[in-house]
Specification:
alpha+beta; disordered N terminus; 4 strands; 4-stranded antiparallel beta sheet; 9 helices; Outer membrane efflux proteins (OEP); 389 residues
């Protein structure tokens, strides 16, 4: 199944270093995940199962030893070998169905892998999100800790009162508690990722989201996609069409031919034996059933294509919107280090402690919002590229 791994990266329009880290994580999970290991074995077994029953029925061998009564007539021995077979077109359709079923199994496994990848990617970007938040809070705490130490000295010298000092300590404590909560969230997510990786620890240290590049035209890009979920329903429709043809071919008589030998005292009869079955009653409604089922499968396939297009278009539009919001925040937040400027102003007496705490809280909330937007964009982008059924 390794040959299908390229499918997961086919649609990556622009990949940064963190996306490469995601691919490394997925490569480990793909190799270690017990569910996927079992799915690979089940797919292989199912693929072999599609070849079962393609050959003609087993030959039938009969032997009979009959005691005569009265004894004077002697005993009778019968022996026969018989082989039955359908009309040749039946085996042609059975072979086609087997090949289509094998392809359907492959697509089903690919789709299962895509769903697993989506789970891994969601957890991965949740971890990156917490890493980004923790990094920003550590940056804020550096300034608060320095200010707290400086205000402690001022308190000891009587320059400020305890209320001023407590304001700084309370702001520092609140941020430390928020950071501890984010670290606990990250630990929980890493445990979830470890579980998906076959109970093997995974370390995700990335603290930056990639820059997503969307295709210029959605419809052109969508037309080039080969999604396993859609391929599955298309194969189901093809299989049903071939099964309808197979059902029609089964109405042809089933032939059998063989050898027969009959032996009685002083006499032996032997020769060929041929015959056929006449399909009158047993499968009377099979073709009608297959035609109705084929119509239903075609409608389900069309519905699945419509729903897939609509969902992907929705993710595409959402990423576009989020990208604009991210660009607006990035242009402002990356221009200056607001905390450094605020600290300089505080030390120079240009602003009060209350002003510093208020402005720094705005800075922190803005970075929180920025990280949230990047996280939302990552979730939408992953859904866009690795869409599950």
């Amino acid at each position: 199944m390794k040959k299908y791994r390229w499918i997961f990266y086919l649609c990556l329009f622009s990949v940064s270093l963190s996306a490469q880290d995601l691919q490394s994580v997925w490569s480990n999970v793909e190799s270690n995940n017990l569910t996927l290991k079992a799915a690979r074995q089940q797919a292989e077994a199912a693929r072999i199962g599609t070849r079962v029953g393609l050959a003609p029925d087993n030959p039938e061998v009969e032997f009979a030893y009959l005691w005569g009564s009265p004894d004077a007539i002697g005993n009778r021995i019968d022996f026969s070998v018989k082989q039955s077979f359908y009309f040749p077109t039946t085996y042609v359709y059975q072979g086609r169905i087997a090949r289509l079923q094998s392809q359907h199994i492959d697509f089903a496994y690919q789709n299962q892998c895509r769903e697993m990848f989506l789970s891994v990617a969601n957890i991965y970007y949740d971890i990156v999100y917490q890493n980004v938040r923790i990094k920003d809070m550590e940056h804020c705490l550096q300034y608060l800790s320095d200010i707290s130490a400086a205000y402690k000295q001022k308190l000891e010298t009587g320059t400020i009162n305890v209320f001023e000092y407590n304001k700084v300590k309370l702001a520092e404590l609140n941020l430390q508690q928020e950071k501890s909560h984010a670290e606990a969230e990250r630990t929980s997510l890493l445990l979830q990722l470890r579980q998906l990786n076959g109970d093997i620890e995974v370390n995700v240290a990335v603290a930056q989201f990639p820059e997503w590049t969307l295709p210029a035209d959605f419809d052109t890009w969508y037309a080039s996609l080969q999604l396993p979920a859609l391929s599955m329903v298309d194969k189901e429709a093809e299989i049903n069409q071939q099964q309808t043809k197979l059902a029609k071919s089964m109405w042809a008589p089933q032939f059998f031919a063989g050898y027969m030998r009959e032996q009685v005292p002083y006499e032996t009869f032997q020769g060929v034996k041929v015959g056929l079955t006449i399909p009158l009653w047993r499968d009377a409604n099979t073709v009608k059933q297959m035609k109705l089922q084929n119509s239903a499968v075609q409608l389900l396939a069309a519905d699945e294509r419509f729903k897939t297009y609509s969902r992907l278009k929705s993710h595409y539009v959402m990423v576009q919107s989020l990208q604009q919001q991210i660009a607006d925040y990035a242009a402002l937040l990356s221009s200056v280090d607001a905390l450094a400027l605020l600290r300089q102003a505080l030390d120079a007496g240009q602003i009060s402690l209350v002003d510093y705490l208020f402005e720094s809280s705005i800075y922190h909330e803005s970075h929180e919002r920025f990280a949230e937007l990047e996280h939302d964009a990552a979730m939408e982008y992953v859904e866009l590229l690795f869409f599950p059924k």
